[in-house]
Structures are given as C-alpha cells and as structure tokens.
Design goal:
Low-confidence stretches: 249-253, 372-386, 543-553, 771-776, 816-820
Strand content: 15-25%
Number of helices: 22
Number of strands: 27
Radius of gyration: 36 Å
Structural class: alpha+beta
Largest sheet: 7 strands, mixed
Distance between the termini: 78 Å
Mean pLDDT: 84
Oligomer: single chain
Helix content: 40-55%
Length: about 850
Amino acid sequence: MPPPNVTGTLHVGHALTMAVQDALVRSLRLDGTEVLYVPGTDHAGLGTYAAVRRATGFRPELPPDERVRAWAEQHRGLISGQLRELGLGCDWDAELHTLDPDYRTLVDGTFRRLAEAGLLYRQARISPWCPSCRSTVPDVEQSAAEARVPVALLALKLARRPHVLELPAVEELWGAVAVAVPPGHPAAGGTAALPTLRWELPTLAAPVEAPRLVVPALREADRELAEAHGLPCPELLDEAGRSLVGAPPEPAGLTGLAGLSREELREATVARFRLRRTTRPVRVVGCGLCGTELTARRGYQWYLRLPELLGPVREALDDGVLRIGPAAVEREARHWLDTARDWCVSRQIAWGQRIPALVCDACPRWAPSPPEGVTREPADHPDGPDRGDCPGCGAPLRPETDVFDTWFNSAHWPLAVTAREGEDADVRPVPASLMTSGRDILFFWFVRLLAIGTFVRGRPPVEEIWLHGLVLDEHGRKMSKSRGNVLTLADGLAGHGRDVLRAALLSACREAEDVRLRPELFTAQAAVRSAAVELAALVADGAGTPGPGPGQGREPDAMEHHGRRAARHARAEVRRHLAACRFDRATEAVTHFAVHVLRRYLRLRSATGTEAVTRALLLDVATVYEPFMPDAADRLRRAAESRPGAVWEVDAELADAVAAVVGAAREAERLHGVTGRPRDEPVAVDATDPAVRPLLGTAWFPHLGGVPLSPAASRPERGFAVHVPGFRDVRLWLPDGAARAVRRDGRRRLRRLMQTRRRLAHRLVQLAAPAGGDEAGAGAAAARQELRARLAWAEQDTHELRLFMKAAGEAQGRTPPPTAWRPDAAGRT
C-alpha cells in the first residue's frame, strides 16, 4: 500500500487506490496464492508541518513541535480506522509507519551507504524558499499559476538610451547590485543610470535575453556573476520573508524598512520612489503545500545524485526485469528517468527524521554522526554539544538539524515492509511483486523509490508498477475545497456503503484515464449488489429452503446448473482481467453476471415459487463478488453455511442448453425495444438442438425474460426467424412488419462492429514483434494473442449479424407494398 499521509483524513482518491489493490489481493487469495498486503502511514514531513500551521484551532495550548506530533498521532489512528472501515484485507500485524525505529535505522543506513559511494553531497545554494513553512521547496513541489498583479515600472538609461524594466517583485531593487545586459549590448561594461532612484549600477554582460537587475540574494546565477566581478551580495529577506533592508550595518538612510513583510516592503518601495504601476499577467510561483508565494534563500542543502542512480533502473526497464504500466505511464516514466536532476533531500523543519551527520557552518564539510546518536532522537532541532572540529576549516562541528525530505524517507517503503529487528538487510526479501497508486506520484514516489531500492538491493524493489488515473467530480473537474466538490471517504461510505463505493470506482478505472464520479456509476453497482443481497436474503428468510438437497434425494434443477456454470465463467473473466489490471472490464464481467444471470434466476424463483438455492451455487456466486464487494460475498457465504447438501458437479451440456434459452430471452428483450412492440406481446422461440427443445416446455420458460416467451408453435402466421447471437440452434420468430426496424438496427450494429474490427487491426499492427526473447517481448506477444482473439470474435459476430440481416431482408421482401394513391377525376390525390 502506498502509505497515506497523516496530513488529514482520506478521500475517494485513496479509496480508488485501495479498491484496486484489495481487488487484486482478494482475487489472488481466492486462487490460493499467499499475499502480503502491508498497510501503514507516512509522516509526510513538510505536508504535515504545513497542515498543522494552517489548523490554528488544533491544540493551541501545545508548543509547535508538540502540536505536530499530536496531530500526526491523532490522524494515524483516524486513517487506520478508515482503512479498516473500507474493508481491506490487509495484514494488519505488519502495519508500518515511516518514523518507526526500524524504519529510521534502515533510512540512516542508506544515507551512509550513499555517502560512501560518493552519491551524496552538501552544498550552499540559493534555493526556492517558503516563508510560511520555513523550508526549501523543490521545483517539483511548487505550484505555478498566472495572475494579474501590479507591476512597478522602473526607468533607466543604458548607453544614454531610455529603457523601462517591469518589476512584479519590486522589492528586488534593494538587493540589486548591477544590471545584466545581453552580450554585445552597447551598454556592457559601463553603468546604468536609474534617475528615479538617483542610483547608478554597473552593467555586466551575461547570458540574458533582455536587460534585467542582478539580485544575488534571489538567483544563484546572479550570485556567481556578482562574485566574479567583486560585487557585494546583500541579503534581502530573512527566513520568515521579512525585510533585512536597513538592518545594521546598512546606511542610516534606509531606516524604517527592516522587519517589514514582503508585501509591506513592496508598498513602501513604490511609495518611497514614487514608481508608476500597471497590471500585467505574471507567473506566480507558490508553495505546493500552503500556497504562499515563494522567495529565495541561500543555505547549505543536501543533494543526491539522482541521474546516476537511475541508470540501472532504466536498464532494468529495458531488459523487462521491471514493468511499468499502462503504456502512457511508461512513456512518462522514461521521460523522468532521462531528465531527472540532482535531488535536494533536506528540509528545514522540526518534523521528520533528522539527517545523521555532523556539519560545519563555515564550509560544506561534514562527518557521519555516531549510529546511536540520531536514529532514536526526536527530530526537534536539538541544541546538542559540538562533536569535534571540521577537518577542512577547523570550525566546530554540530549535529545537523535538517530533516530528510519525506519522499526520501518513504522511498524505502518496499524495502522496509519485511524489516524486523535483528534481520540482515542484505538478505532480507523484497516482497513487492506489484505496486499500484495514482499516476500523480509517479516521479515523487515511484521513480525515487526505484532509484533507492535498486541501489540498496542491486535490483528493482518491485517487479511491476501499475498507475491508475485520478478521481474527478462528475463534471471532470479536479476536486478542491475551494470548489466544494471534495468527496471524503467518510461521505462516500455514508452515502453508498463500501461495496458500492469500491465497485463504482473500479467500474470507471480504465488504464490511466481519470475517473469521473457520475451518479450512474453508483446506481449501477447498487443494482449489482442488491442481486447478491436478495439471493442471500432468500435463503436467510427461509423462502428458498429446499426439501432434500443434493445427495439427499433431490438433484439441482437446470437453472442451478446454469447459474454455477455462469458464475465460474464470470470468475474466470474477472481473474483474467485483474491479472492484466483491466479493472473496468473485470467489473463489467461481474455486472453482466448479476444482471443477466442472477437477476433472471431471482425472477424465476419469485415467479415459479421454486425453492432450490443450493450451497454450491451460493459459494460460486460469492467468489464472483469477493474482489469487488466483499460484504456481499460474506453474506452469501454465511447463507451457504446454513445450507445442507453435498458437493455436486455441473452438467455442462444442460448448463449450455439453459444458456442458449437465456440468450434467446435477452435477444427477445432487445428486439422488443428495437421494433417498439408492446411488452406484453409474446415472442416465439424454437430450437433444433435436442438439449434445448425440452427446456421450452418447462414451467419456468415463459417467465425467463422481461417479455413473455412461448414455444414456436405460437409463432406469427406471417413472420420470419432470426438466429440468437452466439446460439445458431435457437431462433426467434418476429412478424414481417418488424423487418424494417430489425434491418435498420442491424446496419447500425454492423457499422459499429466494422469500426471495432478496424481499431483492433490497427492496434495489432502497432504491436510489432520486438527483438529478442525477453519478458517485454513475451508481454507484447500475449497482447497480440489477445487482440487476435478479439478480432476473431468480431469477425464471427459480423458473420452472424449478416445472416441476421439476411433473414430480416427476406421478410421485408414478403411485406406487401403500401396502398397506392391515385388522383381522382378532379385531379386531387
């Protein structure tokens, strides 16, 4: 399980991920496979820290660090309870948390191994900084949006020519030490006059597209440029985003500006220099966690050489040792593998796992801290004693106060799921054969998880990764609190129940496409669940209590044989589709079974009063429902426990015969809708199959469908016969007047079928045979085999549909022409 963050309670996006996983787990366990399904929670580092700062009403009496701990503990319990309420088949005794002692020991060990391999370094850089979270925020965790904001206009002269700079962040003026101009600009090497400010700044040639201010406090490139020309590098804002302008030892003329917030400093700057403003659309970059506009701050950070770690991951993906799906996600994963940059793994907050190192404040040198020094300590910025002197500059070393980025910590998840005290990490197994989640954390978690796990184990920590889409509202919009369209897990469970909620989400989970929460998804799955509940209630209420059961003097009837055969077929379809992570089609197989088999079975039991619901049928139906609706499956199994009877074998020939009759009932219902005939007008059925003919005279046959059925002896006097699709030995008789509508329907179906054939043929051509006999080639071969099978089915359907239309065409030819209208003597028609 991708561990949910303790930033808050769960929503339906979490429910989709858990439903996907639980369906796979339950299906495998039904087949006797031993599965380890590990639940847990992620401390979420900066995310939790920001959430607690926003929740000003949460435990205000506690110190800030204690508030974060109290929040995390409370939400760990809430999340664990919600996961259990969702009905997940987890191994709860293996539950983990990313700040457990053993987990922290594993992370510390990886840190030391990365450092020994030269893949980790500490360096002072200017980084994006959130004044609210008081931490660096990497580019992948930022939010950028275009907004119309006031922009200050600054006039200057370059080579005696006027020029105007637009300054969205006008406070940059106080940190400007030069003006950068493109190489070859006539003003390069001279000075720029700022008449409004009564300043002059040197002009430096730099790789810029247009003149701009050089502000060393905000951009690393500007700092390097200033240092190269011996210019000062003044600080502009402190860690809280407040002004340092005018603070000692600044000139006395700048008094009144120190300590202002960034917004106040902007207004004060515009007022002091009487700058004009205009409104422009500007790209504003904010913190992805709290939304605060980011600034920049220079400080020592820890960096991991991620591109070097991803080389073996790319090789594993090319060799088929690692599989990522669906195809669109694999393409995106390869993009990240090729474009990833060094990863900043340090955060400047008091919540998380402290980096186990002794650092120097004067230079990048550092030393590993003693193994027992950090892993059991709370991450609360301790003011510990110095631990020796720096070997580079002689300054005293101190314990590092930064904590790991939460993604670095959680990247150890598949390595830690079996981590136990006293085990050897090098021989500990990696149990993740499959990991799934939403595609939005592909880079945040999965790419980094693969990098860390492959480095530690020498092979990917998971064999297959499959990422689904995100959950949107019914209008296709992303859920957000500001729109008021967020559906929490608690609301979803209260409104629909866990069976319907899970199945509805899975029914719309198609590869990496987003899931829209349309109301009809829940309505359809509620009907599917009600069929199983009614069957269980039929037994529980005693209405279906049989006389002597199988093995006790009475054999099961034909519908029992058909029901068990259909349930086993549906279970096989579910198994096949889940193995390929086709959750929508697996759910479709369950829906088809519930609507076209179970519903008809219940209708017959109600219409005929037959009291035969055997234990074997209940158990087979339970296996169909188990991966998607475990509560309904549990009710069926409890009903089966109250049923006597021995195990009996399905009569395949009888089950096939009933399936043919059921197919005739379904086609009769469909044709009634196509032709617009009254629902109470019977449809005649005949059969050439000797196994099917006797069933047409049974007591339950007329009640099998939603329209009345009758044997062929009552067929219309002037009518035509059409074969039931899939059952050539069974025919339906329709009056000649329905031929035109039947042919029109046939043409429409034929057009759709031809489009399907062309699409399948095109996809088959796209899957060219790969070179070599690796696992990727085997996967492509399996996909081609399935496409060929589906194409063969489409061709068979096309053949049957043409025979269907031919019969209707012959009947249409027998239909007498309409009455001819002739003009009368007066010329009127």
